[in-house]
# Entry
Amino acid sequence: MPRSRFVGRTIDSHPKKKSGTSAWRSPSNIALVKYWGKHGRQLPRNPSISMTLSRAFTETMVQYEYQEYPSDSSHLEFYFEGKPNEAFRHRIKTFLDGHIDVMPFLKNVHLSIESRNSFPHSAGIASSASSMSALALCLASIESELLGTEEIDTTKASYISRLASGSACRSVFPEWAVWGQSSFYEGSDDQYAIPVGDYHEIYRDMHDDILIISDHEKSVSSSAGHKLMEDNIYADARFSQARHRMGEIKEHLASGEIMQFGKIVEDEALSLHAMMMCSDPSFILMTPKTLEAIQCIRAYRKENEAPIFFTLDAGPNVHVLYPESIAEETQAFIQNTLGPLCVDGRIIKDQMGQGPTAITEFSL
Ligand code: PMV
# Structure
C-alpha cells in the first residue's frame, strides 16, 4: 500500500460540510506478543498481536467547525469526563500539531473534544489504546465528511492511532489484530494494524479478567520504556524472539493448541518485564502481589489441567486469560483466590470484543 494513501488531502474552500459531530466508542486491547521498542515516527521494532477487549473502552465525541482561513496549528478544547482538562488538551494538541501533514484539514477546523472512560482513571490500566483509537476514528470520520468521501477509512484510522500511541492501532479491529511487518501475516505492515480472522473456536469470546494489583500511576511511561530498548544489550535477541513467536502463535491460534498458546503468552509477558529489569536504569514493574497472582495461576493450572494463563502490560496488574468453556469454575477461583490480592478486591471482567462502534451519544 503506498505511503501517500495516508497523507491527507487539503480541504478546498468548499468543504462538503461546515460543521458536525463525530463520536466513537473504542476498546482497549491486550497484546499476546508484545511491542516494546520503537524507532522513527512511532514504528515498531517488532510485530505484535493482540486481542481486542470489550468492557474497557473510551467514548470520544468531537464537534468541528470549519474555518475559512487556515491557521498553522490546530485549535481545540478538551473535556475529560465533563470537565476541561488542560494536561490532556496539551497532549492532544502536541500530537495534532505534529501530524498536520497527515491531516491537513486540522488547519481549517476548530475542535471541541470530550472523552470518557468506562474504567476509573486511577485503575492503573493503560487508557491510551482506547482513547487514542477513539480520537483517531473521530478524526478519520471528520476528514471523510469534509472531503465528502463515502466511508471512513479504517486503515487510515489505524494509521492515525499508531501515530498517537503505537498499541492503539490494533484497537481499531475486532477480535485479533496484528501490527508490524511479519512474514507470517500477509499484508501486515509497520504503519498500521490488520485484522486476523483465522482462529480456532476455543478462543472465541476469550476472557481477560484484569486484576487491579495497584492503582498507582505507572512508575515508567511507555515512551520512556520503549526508549530504554535503544541501549539494552539484549534488544536484538528480544526483537527476533518476538518475530519468531508471531509464527508460533499464529499456528496455535489456528489449531486450537491452547496450552502452547498460553506458554508463549506468559513467556512474552515475562520477557517484556525482563527487558525492563535489565535496562539502564532498571525498573521492576511487578510487585510481590503480581508474583503471588502468577504463582497461584500456575498452581491452579497444574492442579486442574485448566487452560488459564496470565499476561502483563508494562505494569503490576495481571491479565488472566481463559476460554469461555471454563468460565464458571475459573471465575470462582479468580474471585476467591486472586480477588484478595487486588486493591479493594477490584477486578475488571473483560472479554474479547468486536471493535469500535460509532455512537450518537455518551453511554457513560
Ligand atoms: O502503545 P504504547 O506506546 O503505550 O506501548 C504499549 C506497549 C505494551 O502495552 C507493553 C505492549 C503492547 O504491545 O501493547
